[in-house]
Design brief:
The two termini are 49 Å apart. It is elongated and about 90 Å long. It is an alpha+beta fold. The strands form three sheets. The protein has a five-stranded antiparallel sheet with strand order 7-3-10-9-8, sandwiched between helices. Strands 4-5-6 form a three-stranded antiparallel sheet. The chain contains twelve helices and ten strands.
Length: 338
């Protein structure tokens, strides 16, 4: 275990390196930070930190820079989540408040995260499997043709056309719409099949075929394995950090083009807490020089998807974590109110 003093020295090295982009020497540390010890003591502490793999010397006669291990300890023990200022919170609220639908919410969130953190922003669309039913609408298009519209609590809208086995009147349609919504609104998708299984029996025999067809279409929509959707933005921000990546930036950009890689980066939505993966903790080789900060968001206590940012390991972790958490909270509020 490192002593409190050496933890403070590590904290100072990380803060200075993130701020200046230059390797940090003991003289600069003692001048910039009130460590309460002599430069000789700081040099000794830095030697211990280097021996234990928390900092490294990139060039002979240069100062020291944090390693992945050093950043990890900084995030776990030393970095609180930096609260956003009142103007920043107002800007988030005003920017997201004007969204008109789910696509707009996700698009605005990506742009906002990229602007706030000046990194690559990734936002996952809410998954159907983690949603509840807000409303089911049935519209008559012809005497034997209907449109089913499923609206989820996360603002997602799914539409399906239904060809009925027989004409279905407006009165029967209104009756089915009312009975269906009374059973499924506010319920998890997994519960719906059991809730509607006896519904056809409550209709006249000539209408049961159409009711069964409508329910089959609804259930297919609920269990359909739709491709997980993501939106990404701010990739050009990485060009500002060219010197932070070994050799070239191309492997990072190529990795960010693969959706499967991005979904793994964000992690499972059920893990709604803040996750920070640093450098070689990212399994994809092209992202070994990056860090990922991600968190779940949702319309209630449970996360329905994840959002986060990707940037160089030399990032402002407290500020980035604060921005990601704040944006996730606002997006959740918008989904709950929409």
């Amino acid at each position: 275990m490192l002593s409190e003093r050496r933890l403070e020295v590590l904290r100072a090295i990380v803060q200075d390196y993130v701020g200046t982009e230059e390797p940090v020497g003991s003289k600069a540390l003692t001048e910039r930070h009130k460590l309460g010890v002599s430069p000789a003591t700081v040099r000794n502490d830095m030697a211990v930190l280097e021996d234990e793999g928390f900092i490294a010397q990139p060039h002979t006669s240069a100062g020291r820079i944090p390693t992945d291990k050093g950043y990890r300890l900084f995030v776990d023990k030393l970095a609180g989540v930096k609260p956003l200022s009142s103007p920043e919170r107002r800007a988030i609220h005003n920017f997201l408040d004007g969204a008109v639908d789910l696509d707009d919410v996700v698009g605005r969130t990506v742009r906002l995260l990229a602007q706030l953190t000046r990194q690559v922003a990734i936002v996952q669309y809410p998954s159907l499997t983690r949603s509840t039913v807000r409303h089911v609408e049935l519209l008559s298009l012809a005497s034997a043709r209907l449109m089913l519209v499923l609206i989820t609590d996360t603002g997602r809208v799914e539409q399906r056309m239904i060809d009925c086995p027989a004409p279905f009147g407006e009165t029967s349609l209104a009756d089915l719409r009312a009975r269906l919504n009374s059973r499924v609104v506010g319920r998890r998708f997994a519960d719906v099949p059991q809730l509607v299984q006896d519904l056809p029996d409550s209709f006249e025999s000539e209408d049961r075929g159409t009711v069964s067809t409508v329910l089959s279409t609804l259930l297919e929509t609920l269990v359909e394995e739709t491709e997980e959707r993501l939106m990404i933005g701010g990739t050009s921000n990485l060009t500002r950090f060219g010197h932070d990546f070994p050799v070239v930036i191309r492997p990072v950009l190529e990795a960010l083009e693969e959706q499967v890689v991005l979904l793994k980066l964000l992690g499972e939505a059920k893990d709604s807490g803040m996750t920070v993966r640093i450098g070689h903790e990212n399994a994809h080789e092209g992202l070994n020089s990056t860090s990922v900060v991600a968190v779940g968001y949702g319309s209630g206590d449970e996360a329905v998807a994840k959002l986060g940012v990707v940037g160089p390991t030399r990032m402002d972790y407290p500020g980035t974590m604060g921005a990601v958490r704040a944006v996730a909270r606002y997006v959740g509020q918008i989904l709950a109110e929409s």
